[in-house]
Amino acid sequence: MEIRSDKDSFEVSDAGTKRSHVRAVVEALFVTVLWASSWVIIKFGLEDIRPLTFAGLRYTVAAVILVGAIAWKKEHREFTRKQDRSWWSSMALYGVVFVAVTQAAQFIGLDLLPAITVSMLLNLTPIIVLVLGILTLREIPTRLQTLLVFLVVIGAMVYFYPIDLDFTEIVGLSVVLIGVFFNALSSIIGRAINRERASPPIVVTGVSMAIGASLLMVAGIMFEGLIILTPIAMVYVLWLSVVNTAFAFIIWNRAMQVLRAVDISVINSTMLPQIVVLSIVFLEEMPDLIDWAGLIILALSVAAIQALQAKRTMAIQTTDVIVRTLKDQVEAGEA
Predict the structure, then answer these.
(1) SS3 content of the chain, % helix, strand, coil (to 5)
(2) Which portions of the chain are predicted below pLDDT 70?
(3) Where along the chain do its domains lie?
(4) pTM recorded for the entire structure
(5) Closest Cα partner for 194 from 207, 181, 204?
(6) Which residue, 245, 292, 246, 208, is CA-closest to 42?
């Protein structure tokens, strides 16, 4: 019989942890590839399906899958059934902001603008989150964060230089910027929901998505009418719904249980380069030299801002854990 020392056990445990971390990184990167490919698929699909209907179909099918998964698991089913009106109001607000408004703006934007431009604009979300944090949470940015914000603005200005937009591009730009604001707002709402750590992620996603997708479908029927999907359009909808939304969420959520906030921010920052490459290869969108300069400045600055915000969040969470632990110890001593 082989007897292992504590040191050997520690080394085995450490190796297992490293393998779990590497696997989580690979899984998360795989999901970002799926999400980046969504932009190309959406651009192809918009040739046959109007944007609101397309978005509504994608998220309705995905919501049906996720709600089915919630209903399948007893603990999730019981959790959902026991929630009060306040919880349902939060889910409804999150669904309206993140799914109905943000995704509608993204699909309309992709119908009017190149995928690279829309992706670049949506990468401004961390800047809006930073500003909203100042206004609502009194989170004052550091000098480095302020400098990075200026670099992001410079990158965006370089990308659009010289500013020569036609009416369609102005409308598309306005719609996407509205989407950027609501995407940032959804991040704040999502943080508030997740701060409680009481609701399982699949329940939050499934319920809020079902609410938002229902509104998208109603809007699609009202403004775009009923349509008959072509076979290839059905493939686009099913792939985006089943693989790039429902399946991707399950894989992403599993990876998030292992990865740190900093890891997540770095992995998220790979989305823009992936979308640029895929758009060049499949959509024949070729940025010129000035566009490349703006994209690089913006992408690196946003990635740095996300990393700094993630580290700050980790520090706050660690402090909260220490405070709660000390409080529990004091209460236990009094008892």
Answers:
(1) 85, 0, 15
(2) 1-16, 137, 139, 195-197, 261-262, 312-335
(3) 34-334
(4) 0.84
(5) 204
(6) 245
Each residue of 48-78: pLDDT tens digit? 999 999 999 999 999 999 999 999 999 999 9
Question: Would you state the pLDDT for residue 323?
Answer: 47
Q: Are 241 and 58 in contact (CB under 8 A)?
A: yes
Q: How far is CA 199 from the centre of its chain?
A: 18
* Cα separations in angstroms, 217 against 47, 112, 172, 228, 294: 18, 20, 21, 14, 36
Rounded Cα distance between 56 and 329, Å, is 50
Structure confidence at residue 6 (pLDDT) = 53
List the structure tokens of 25. Answer: 């990184």
Q: Measuring CA to CA, how many Å separate 234 from each of 41, 65, 238, 267? A: 12, 16, 6, 30
d(CA 194, CA 207): 14
Q: 266 is written with which tokens?
A: 């770095």
Q: Which two tokens stand for residue 276?
A: 């640029």
Rg (CA), the chain: 22
206 touches 66 (CB < 8 A) = yes
Instruction: Please give the structure tokens belonging to residue 13.
Output: 């445990």
**CA-CA distance, 52 to 57, in Å (whole number)?**
9
Phi-psi region of 162 (alpha: psi -120 to 50; beta: other; left: phi over 0): beta
CB atoms within 10 A of CB 140: 9
